[in-house]
Queue: 2 jobs
Job 1
Amino acid sequence: MNAPHPIEVKGLTMRYGALLIMEDLNFQVRRGEIFVIMGGSGSGKSTLLKHLIGLKAPAEGSILFEGEDFLEADAMTRKGILQKMGVLYQNGALWSGLTLAENVALPLEVYTELDARSIGEVVSLKLALVGLRGFEALYPSEISGGMRKRAALARATALDPEVLFFDEPSSGLDPITASRLDDLILQLRDSFGTTIVMVSHDLASIFKVADRALFLDIEEKTMTAMGKPSSLRDDPPSDEVLRFMTRSSETGPQEAPGDPRARTAPTPRKDP
């Protein structure tokens, strides 16, 4: 018998009151893949992410984690599901009054019974993995935007989650720093087999990291495409997908799926 997918979405409809956002969403996220949710502004990408991490209930349909319906599960099962997740929010969402080390330690203090010494060792390891060794005692306001994103990534991985969710990870970053963050995302998947679900409209990032991508069409109010980004660009199922995948400001119609940001990048802020 095949193991259930890490995430399976069945007949999902999303609403804010009477306002329909998206309907009839059906897809599965495969184990160990980087799955990108993409679409134009206002298409419901971040709303879908909120549904996937249990912050918003579906108007219709269901979302399964390893075959378990989060909303229908008992409290113990829900806690177990949450411990398998890590979330990197668009703005990082670090606590401003806590040091980087204290931010990363927080989920370990809440969800584990590790002693202070063990927590400190995990925190040091996680910060080192994202290139922030030596910055443990600094506060979020004392570091650059790229470093804050990396610190937030260290916190998101504190519990060694099986699934990581990223909301526009490259938002607000210069092209070089964004590309470095993409490298970290790939490293997480390749080194630890982490399943990654990422909301993004950044074509350079999508082409660089995504195994598959799903397109939310704001006009049709549903998903209209899913597949490898290069396939969606070269053989688009609709004009809207074609326009999205060939925006000349980022990749151009025939751009190879590399990372073109580096070729047109402005001088970035120094980001140790």
Note: Confidence is low (pLDDT under 50) at residues 249-272.
Job 2
Amino acid sequence: MTNVLQNKKFIASAIAVTMVASAVSTVSADTTKFQDVSDRYMKAVNFLVENGITNGISETHYGTAENIKRQDAAVMIARAIGFNSNQDFNDSGFTDVPASAKWAVDALVQAGIVHGKTAKRFGSTDLLTRNELSKILAGAAQYDIDDKVTTTQFTDVNSKFAKYVDALLKNGVTVGKSKTQYGSEFNLTRGEMALFIFRAKEDLKRELFSMSLMHTNDTHARLASAPKRVTAVKEFRAKNPDALLLDAGDVFSGTLYFNEFTGEPDVKMMNLMGYDAMTFGNHEFDLGSSDEGHQALKDFVTAATFPFLSANTDFSKNPLFEGLFQAKIPTKAESGNIYSGMVKEINGEKVGIFGLTTEDTAAISSPGDITFSNYIDEAQKMVDEFEKMGIDKVVALTHIGFDDNAAVDNDQELAKAVEGIDVIVGGHTHTKLTNPVLVNKFEAPTIIVQTGQYGDSLGTLNVEFDEHGEVYAYGGELIKIEAQAEDAEALKILKPYTDRVKEIEEEETAAVAVSALLNPRSGDEGNTTGASVRSNETPLGNIITDGMLAKARTFSPETVMAFQNGGGIRSGINAGPITVGEVITVLPFGNTLATMDLTGAEIKQAFEISVGQYPNENGGFLHVAGAEIRFDASKPAGSKIVSITFVDANGVKTPLVDSTTYKVATNAFTAKGGDGYDVLAKAYAEGRAIDLGISDWINFQEELERIGQITPKVEGRIVEINTPQ
């Protein structure tokens, strides 16, 4: 595991189990070679050495009577828990910890087991007292600590440490130096340390269940990298043969693979990889308003060698899915069928898995007579049903977003609202969670994972459950797909589809450029000279934003303007018939369209950022449709905008009002604060944005074809009124 975070609520006992054995070169596992180990310490020392927790100070001596430093004790306890030096932990900030012990101190601090002497000093070389170890071990072992206890049978234990010593006494970990003396301020020896750890191990050993899973989300028909993902899956599964493979939705829409084949090559790739389940994203319902309705989705489902899960999606009114949708939890889910949830047996343990789809689908896609109910209500029903079945390990496979509008649905709100969900495998917001996120609303925690987008990464997660079915420890990472080799079988399956896509890229759209649509840059990247796309209005920027505004208004007619960052416009278009490939080259990042609710003051603040570096290039310079921007570059930063007007519903140019809230459209990159738009990032974080999920190049192509004959022109949308001479 690349990052194991064991929260204090569910931290392993100091030596309950060694999850990941450290790569320790022990001096000897045979304590008979240690001349200083008496019968009293024999079993304890043997246990520590055999389990890689520590070793002798030489071939012949364990160092039984040697005092132990805080740094060395930290390493022993960390190894006993199962931490190791190959794992990543938050920097504890101490300046006195040697490199050999830093990982252990960082791990224990992150787990809430130890603290420093000060914010910067751990006290690495200080000797550890019996009192100090009592506090550390009682916390690490999760003993019940009675805060009311202020005294013990030992007269030398003060009120500060009495409750910890009491906990060790009750659990048989210590008996003290005598009936009345604990030796509280005595420095701990290595032999005593071995006894403490060994006794705690005997009392607190737990039986754990391990589950590994791989996950993807929002791949959006990015099949060019699929053969590499196949390799990554095969390699992970070779080391973790029982690992689940789950997809959190939005396989549909986004590239020519989907436009031409509507999911056929995608499901073939997924079948090859051996997916165990998938939930539906909103884009799975994009074709609902077509003449064929959801036929492509039905074909996708029935071609799959895995089941589909969504507890809050009702297919019962759509005849295409008759016989495919079952609102129940089967003990054995059939491939090509749709369920609310399912049970998967792994190494003799049953795991419950259910799916959720964003309720926003009704507004941002075309589900038709397929409906969506409240995600929290349905999730609670699923957890309750699993509990009735005696299943206490639950995975939610969701397409509701990590930080999407909380008023609608998102994973963090789900984790806080429904107790009993152990893992949430999410999608929808394209959030790249490099490390799993822990939500601790209830006594047992919930882990949230999401890979980002477009199949760029394969998510992996390893989870340990205790005997109560609660998360005990976990670690996860994102495997970069770009670095993988391409799988030969996958390439063979994909080849006819790829060949056809390449042909389509050469096909002409229904648009013709009367003259070249230039994308001028002042830097080395520039195709031409002229007013840079990163500091001035351009014909290409106008067409792109016109298409964004037109598309946004099909969802929200009240949208007043659209804006696009100049840094996202990457190429020009030659004169003549415009090909599909040229369209994609202009907007190659696959950004999606988003709408936002912003005040007039926030919109002005965004455009202050846009023109703030004028006349220098700025990748965040905003092209605009539906509005006119006037600015004075001679004014101080933050005061350059002179006016912003938009055309209201009556066709009248209207000044922006600071206190009024407006609907605007932009790409998801900018909406999330890309290029330094913190004002937009704040609105996004507050749930004032909806990602419509429609690829920017598709909107652009539709706008080009709507115009037909393209004559490049600027229209005075963005004007600097006081250009320096």
Note: Residues 8-128+187-204 form one domain.
